[in-house]
Design brief:
The complex is a heterodimer of chains A (102) and B (191). Chain A is α+β, with helices and mostly antiparallel strands. Chain A is 53% helix and 21% strand. Chain A has a single domain, classed as Winged helix-like DNA-binding domain superfamily/Winged helix DNA-binding domain (Arc Repressor Mutant, subunit A, Orthogonal Bundle). Classes of the chains: A alpha+beta (102), B mainly alpha (191).
C-alpha cells in the first residue's frame, strides 16, 4: 500500500501562469469579454485565444458570443467546474507553501 | 494601495478617463453658464453628460478596454454607496438652497460666500466619485474646487471661476488617461 503523498498535487491546467491569471480574473467578475481579459492579463491576442480555448475545452469556462457594432464579442465566465478547480488549486498551493519557513 | 486584486481590478475599470473627461467638460459648461448668467442650463448639462458618457464608453472605451460584468456582491456594495451619495447630495443641495434663501432674505450677510456654493457642491460629488470608484484623483478635483471656492470668496470673482478651473483639471486629466488608452490599446477584431 502506497502512503499518501507528502506534497500536494497541483493541477497543471490551472497551474500554468497565463491560465491561472485568466481564471483568477474570471473569478473576480461575473463575466468578461475578450478585450477586457486581453487588457487586464496583458497577453497577446494569440496567446489569450489559445489559453481560453484550452480552458473552454476543459470545461473550466463557459463562452457566449454576440455581435456588437458589427464585431464579434466573446464573453467568458468561470464555470462551476472552473471555480471548483481554482478552489482546489488554492488549497493545494496554501498547503504546499505552508512548508516554507518564514 | 488597495488591498485585494478584486479592489484593484474594480478601480482599473474606472481608469480610462472617460468619466473625468465628460464630468470635467460638464463642470466647465456649468461654469460658462454662470459666467453668461444662463444658470438654467445647469439643469440640462447632467442628462446630456450622462448620455455623452454612455456613448463615449460604448464607441471608444469598450472596443479597446473591453467589458466585464461585476460580481453581485460588488454591484450591491456600489448600489448602496450610490444611494448614500444620493442622500448626501440631496441634503447638501437643500442646505445650499437654504443658504441662498437666507442671503436673499438678508438673514446672512455673506453674499460672496454663496458664490462658492456651486463649487463646494460639485466638490462633494467629486468626493462621492472618489469613494464610488476607489480613485484618489477625484479627491484632487474636490480639493481644487474647494480651494477655488475659497479664492472666489476672498477675491470676489463670482461662482464661475472655481468651476472653470476644477472642470478643466478633470477634463485635462481625463483627456490624458483616454489618450493613453487609445495609444496603448488599439481596437480591432478579437483574434
Amino acid at each position: 500500500m502506497r502512503s499518501a503523498p507528502v506534497l500536494p498535487e497541483l493541477d497543471p491546467l490551472v497551474h500554468e501562469p497565463a491560465r491561472l491569471r485568466l481564471l483568477v480574473l474570471l473569478a473576480m467578475v461575473d463575466s468578461a469579454d475578450f478585450m477586457f481579459l486581453l487588457r487586464q492579463a496583458d497577453m497577446s491576442r494569440g496567446n489569450l485565444s489559445v489559453q481560453m480555448k484550452r480552458l473552454e475545452e476543459a470545461g473550466l469556462v463557459t463562452v457566449a458570443k454576440s455581435v456588437v457594432g458589427g464585431r464579434v464579442r466573446t464573453s467568458y465566465a468561470l464555470s462551476s467546474a472552473g471555480l471548483s478547480a481554482l478552489s482546489s488549486y488554492r488549497d493545494a498551493m496554501l498547503d504546499l507553501l505552508s512548508a516554507v519557513p518564514r | 494601495m488597495l488591498r485585494t486584486p478584486e479592489a484593484r481590478l474594480y478601480r482599473s475599470t474606472w481608469s480610462d478617463g472617460s468619466i473625468d473627461l465628460v464630468a470635467g467638460f460638464s463642470v466647465v459648461a456649468i461654469g460658462i453658464s454662470y459666467l453668461f448668467d444662463l444658470v438654467f442650463l445647469t439643469a440640462i448639462v447632467p442628462p446630456v453628460a450622462l448620455v455623452g458618457w454612455m456613448v463615449l464608453r460604448a464607441r471608444v472605451v469598450e472596443p479597446r478596454a473591453g467589458r466585464a460584468a461585476l460580481r453581485r456582491d460588488r454591484r450591491e456594495r456600489a448600489r448602496g454607496e450610490l444611494a448614500v451619495t444620493a442622500v448626501v447630495g440631496v441634503i447638501a443641495l437643500l442646505a445650499a438652497l437654504v443658504a441662498v434663501w437666507a442671503v436673499r432674505a438678508d438673514l446672512l450677510s455673506t453674499a460672496d460666500a454663496v458664490d462658492a456654493l456651486p463649487a463646494v457642491l460639485v466638490a462633494l460629488l467629486a468626493l462621492a466619485a472618489a469613494v464610488l470608484t476607489r480613485s484618489p484623483r477625484f479627491i484632487w478635483y474636490a480639493v481644487i474646487l474647494v480651494l477655488g471656492g475659497v479664492l472666489t470668496v476672498v477675491l470676489g470673482t463670482g461662482p464661475a471661476m472655481p468651476l472653470l478651473v476644477g472642470g478643466a483639471a478633470a477634463a485635462l486629466t481625463g483627456g490624458v488617461l483616454l489618450g493613453r488608452l487609445l495609444a496603448q490599446a488599439p481596437t480591432g477584431d478579437e483574434v
